[in-house]
Amino acid sequence: MISAFFIFNQKGEVLISRLYRTDFKRSIADVFRIQVVSNSDVRSPIITLGSTSFFHVRINNLYVVAVTKTNANAALVFEFCYRFISICKAYFGKVDEEAVKNNFVVIYELIDEINDFGYPQNSEIDTLKTYITTESIVSTNIAAEESSKITTQATGAISWRRADVRYKKNEAFVDVIENVNLSMSAKGNVLRADVDGHIQMRAYLTGTPECKFGLNDKLVIDKNDKGQSDAVELDDCRFHQCVSLAEFDADRTISFVPPDGEFELMRYRSTSNVKLPLRVIPSVTEVGTTQVQYTVIVKANFNNKLSATDVVIRIPTPLNTTTTECKAPTGKAKYVPAENVIIWKIARLQGGAECSIRATADLTRTTTRQVWARPPIDVDFQVLMFTASGLIVRFLKVFEKSNYQSVKWVRYLTKASGNYQIRF
Amino acid sequence: MSIRAPRKGENYELSVDLNSEYREKRKDAIKRTIASMTVGKDVSGLFPDVLKNMQTDDLEQKKLVYLYLMNYAKTQPELVILAVNTFVKDTDDPNPLVRALAIRTMGCLRAEKIIDYLCDPLQKCLKDENPYVRKTAALCVAKLYDLKPDLVLDNGFLDQLLEMIADSNPMVVANTVAALTDIHVSAIGSGASSEDSGYFTITTSILNKLLIALNECSEWGRVAILNALARYQAHDEKESEHICERVVPQFQHANGAVVLAAVKVIMIHMRKVHREEMTRQLVRKMAPPLVTLLSSPPEVQWVALRNINLLLQKRPDILQNEMRVFFCKYNDPLYVKVEKVDIMVRLASENNVDALLSELKEYASEVDVDFVRKSIKAIGQTAVKIDAAAERCVNVLLELINTRVSYVVQEAVVVMKDIFRKYPKTYEGVIPILCSNLDELDEPEAKASLIWIIGEYANTIDNAADLLGIFVDSFTEEAYPVQLQTLTAVVKLFLIKPDSSQAIVQRILNTATKDCDSPDVRDRAYIYWRLLSMDPAAAKAVVLAHRPPISIPRTTVAPSLLEELLGEVGTLASVYHKPSETFIGKGRIGADAVRNRAELGDDQLSAQKALQTVAAGQQAENLLDFDDASTIEGQPSGLAATGILSQTPAAANIIAGTSTNPLDDLVSIFGGGDSGSSGGLAPAPMSFGGGGFGGMGQFGAGAPGALGTAGLSNMPPTPATAKPNMHPEQQEDLLGLF
C-alpha cells in the first residue's frame, strides 16, 4: 500500500507529488531530500525513518519515490515504480527531468489512474493509451458507448486487448532476444554462464485470436518424441499476463490471446549448455610498479555465416595510469581516462575469426602503495540469428473464428551488455 | 473564511487568468496552479477561482480541478460544499469514466461536509452496471471507512462488499478484496475488531471465489487475492493441498510481486501438508522462480534476496545446487552484493566450497571496504561451517593478510579468532604471522581478537609477555573491549607461566582497578585479583576452562519470529527480518504487547522456547553454583557485545529484530521481573554494571546472594537466550570467559 508518490530531480526538487492517503503532510518530501538526495552514502533502496519507509528507484538522475507507513509489500512497491517508469517511456519516449516537467499534467492523470488509495490498478500501457492521451479529450467527443468499451476492456478478463481490432494483412513478428551473462575466472574457468532470454512479439492480428506457441523446450520434446538432442532445458519461464498459467502448469503449452501490437510474451532462463559466442583470452602483466602490459585475444565461436556486430571490449587500467599505447590491427582502440578503461571497438567480427590487441599502460608512482582491484574486462556485442541457449521457435499457430491466414516472422538475437565479464 | 490573494504577484495573476473568458487561458492557468502546488507553493487562496472551472466537458481539465480539490479540500471545508453538486451530478453521467472519476475523487476529499453527500452516490456506484465504476466504488468504501467508520457500518457497505466478492468481473473482485483487507486491518489496528472476529473473515465459499478470480485478474489484483489467501485458515490437509495446487502456477508470472506473494501463500499452507512427496514437489517448483527474480532490477532483486535468505533458514535444501547464480557481478549495487555473499555462505557445502572460496577471495580485493570486510567474514564463516574446508580457508586468509591492506588484515585477524575457537590447537603455525601484523591493527575489535589469541596460546608463544606488555603499556588509552581482553589474556598468561609474568599481572591489576573508569573492567580486575589471591586452582578452572565449540547458527532469527516472517514474504518485515511492530506506527512495543504476543503465539513454539530457556537458565545456575565470578565475567562481554552491535546498522537490525525474544523468555520465566525495558538487551547489563561496584565489598565477603534478586533475574537469560538466536553476539559472548 503506497501512501504517497513523488518524483524528485537530482537537486532534490519535487517534480511530482501525489499523496494517496492522509497519513502524511506534503513536507514529508523534505525529509527524503535531506536523508537521501543530499546524502552521498545511501546504501539501501529502502529507508525507514521512524515509522515512515521510503522506497526509491533512480532513473536518469530522477528519483521515483514511494512512501508508506505500513508493513507494505516491498516487491509490489518496486514493481510498481518500475511499471510507472516503463509507462513513462512508452508515453514520452524517455524518462528524465525534461520529460517529466513537460508532461506533468499527463503524469498526474496517469498516477491517479494506475493507483487508487495506494493500491495499484490497471497499468497496461496499451489500454491506458486508449483513454489517457497527450491531447485533451472532451468528454462529449467520446461517446459514452466508446468509454463503456474502454472501461470494459480495462477491467475485463482480457484487459489487454480491444475486441474490434482489424488488419488487412495478418502478421505476427517474434523476436527471440537473449542476454548472455558470463563470469569467467582469471584461469579461464566459467564461473557462471547463463542466458536471460525474452520473447518479444508484435502481433497485428484481426479479431480475438487464440495463439499457441511452441519452443524446443526439453520437457515438451522429451514427452513427445524421444531421442532428439537439440532440445533446450529451460530453468524457468515467466509469462505475460495474457498467457494461461494453469495450462502451462498442466502440460507446458503456451497459449494466449495476444495484446494488439508489441509486448513481451515471455522471459526465460537457461543455464545448461550455454554457447558462448565470444571467447576472450586476456593476459595482463604488471611490470614493476610503473607499467601494465596487456594482450587480449578475442575469438568468435560460431558459424562463419554469422557475425558479431557492435563489439565493444572495455579493458580496465589502474587508477594512476598516465598514458597508454594501444595497437589494434582490427577495430579501433582508445583510452578513456574518465572511466579508467581502454575501449576497443570492432564493428563486425565474422564467425570463426580471431583478433587481438596489444596495449601498455604507464603508471605514475604513488606515495602510498595502492592495490589495484583489477575489475573484470567487459564485453558488449550482438549476434543476429544466433541463440546462446540453442532455443528455437518451433511453431506459432493462430486460431481465429474467421480462420484467416496469417504470416509469422521469427528473428533471433544474442547480445551482451554489461554482464559478460572476464577476470584477469 | 477564505484568504484572498493580494492584488499583485503570481497568485493574483493566476486568479485573473482563472477567471478569464477564454477557455484555453483558464485551462492553462489551472495547469500553472497545479505546477505551483507541486513545488510546494501555497495556492489555497485560489480555491474559489479554481472551483469555478469544475463544470466542464473537458475531461483533462476536470481531472486537474479535482486534483486541486483533493489537495486543498481540507483547508477550505466551507467552500468544498460548492463542489458537491457537480460531483453528485457527475456520478449520474452517461460516461462511465466520468462516473468513476467523480466517485474516486469524492472519496479523497476528506472534508466532513462532503462525506454526508457521499453515501447515496456510493450506494449507486457499487451497483453500477459498468465494472470500471464498481471497482472504483469498492475502493471508495475503504476510503470512507478511513474517514468515518460508522458511516460504512450504518449504511451496510460492508455487507455489500462481501457480496461483491462474487462479482463476475475479476478486477472488481480484486479491488473488493483489497478494500475489505484494508478495512479489516485498520479495524484491528484501532481495536474496533479482533483478528478472530474481523470484518473480513475468509470462509470456504469466499476461498473458492478467490481461487477462481485469481487466474483471471490483473497482476496487482493477484497480489491482493494471494494476500487474502494467505490469511485463510485451512480446515484440513486436503484443503491446504488444494490451495497449494491452485497457487503454484502463479510462480510463472512475469511480475515479481506476484511470484513472492505466491511463495508466501505456499509457505503458509505448506505447514499443514504432511505428504512428503507433495512438500518436495512444492519446494522444487519454488526454486527456479526465485532464481529468476535475480534478473529483475536491483531493488526487486534485493527484496527477493532478503526473502531467499529467510526461506533458506526454514528450508536449507531449497536452492542446494544453485550457489553459482548468487555470484556477485562487478557492477551489482553494494546492497545486492552483501546479501548475495550471505546467501552463498548459507549454500556452502563440501562440493562447492572451492568455487566459493575463490569467489570470496576475488571480492576481498575489491574497492568497497564494507564489502571486502563482509567477504572476509564470509571466509571465516565457511571455515567454521565446513570442517573439511577449514584449512583452505585459513590459507586464503593468510594470502589476504599478506596484502597488508590495513582493513583486510584487521578483519582477517578477527576472523582467525573464530577459527581458533572452532578448531583449537590446529593452526598454531599461523600465530607468528598474525603477531607480526600487530602494528597494523588500530580497530578495537581486531586488537581484542589478537589479544585473545595471544592469551589463549600463551604457552606456545615465547614472547607472549612482551606482546601483551605493549597493550598493558597503553592500557588506559585503549577501548573497553580491548582492555577487557588484555586483562583476561594477562591473567591467562600468568596462570600458564606464573614464574615469568608475576610483574605484568600485578601491573595490570593495579592499573585496571585504580586508573580505569569503566566499572566493568574494574570489576573484572577485582574478581581476578581475589580469585588469584584466594584460590589459584579455582582461578585456573575458571579462566582456563574448556570452552564450548562455536558453530554457525542456521537461523539468524528466533524460530517463532522466522515463522511469522515467512508468513509475510515480500513485505517490509521480511526485508528487514524484523516484526512489523518494530518499524510501523504506535512507537515502540510495550512489554504488555510482547507478553500478549507470547501468550497468543503458537503454543507449541512457546512451549519449546520455554523449555529452551529453562535449560539455559539451569546452565547459568550451575555456573553460579560453581563460582559467582564466572557469571560476572559473562556480563561485561554481553555489554561489549551490545555496544559493538549497535555500531553497525545492519547488526542493529538483527538485534532489534531478535531482541524481543529474550524479553519474551524473561517475561514468561520470571513472571515479569523487569519487563519495563523493551529496548532489548542493553538495559539488563547496564543496570547491573551500574550497581556492580557498590556490591563488590559484600561480594568479596563471599555472600552468594550479594547480587540481589533483581540483578539475578536479569542476568541468566541474557547470554543464554542470545546463543541460539544471534550469531555475532554469540561470538562476543564466547570470547569472554563464559
Beta percentage of chain A is 35-45%
What overall geometry of chain B do the principal axes of the alpha carbons give? elongated
Distance between the termini of chain A: 46 Å
Helical percent range of chain B?
55-70%
Shape of chain A: globular
Question: Quick one: how many beta strands of chain B?
Answer: 0
Q: Sheet bearing the most strands of chain B, described?
A: none
Helix content of chain A: 10-25%
Average pLDDT taken over every residue of chain A: 86
Q: What does the radius of gyration of chain A come to?
A: 26 Å
Number of strands of chain A: 24
CA-atom Rg of chain B in angstroms: 32 Å
Tell me the greatest interface.
A-B, 99 and 111 residues
Poorly predicted regions of chain A: none
Mean pLDDT of chain B: 77
Strand % of chain B is under 5%
Explain how this protein is built.
The complex is a heterodimer of chains A (424) and B (738). The mean pLDDT of chain A is 86. Chain A is an alpha+beta fold and 424 residues long. In chain A, strands 8, 9, 11, 13, 16, 18, 19, 21, 23 and 24 form a ten-stranded mixed beta sheet that branches. Chain A is built from eight helices and 24 strands. Chain A has helices at 28-37, 74-92, 97-102, 104-113, 125-131, 144-155, 218-224, 245-251, and strands at residues 4-8, 14-19, 46-49, 52-59, 62-68, 115-116, 119-120, 171-184, 190-204, 210-215, 236-239, 254-256, 261-270, 278-287, 291-300, 307-316, 321-327, 332-336, 341-350, 354-363, 377-384, 393-399, 407-416, 420-422. Chain B has 738 residues and is mainly α. Chain B is 69% helix and 0% strand. The longest helix of chain B has 24 residues, at 603-626.
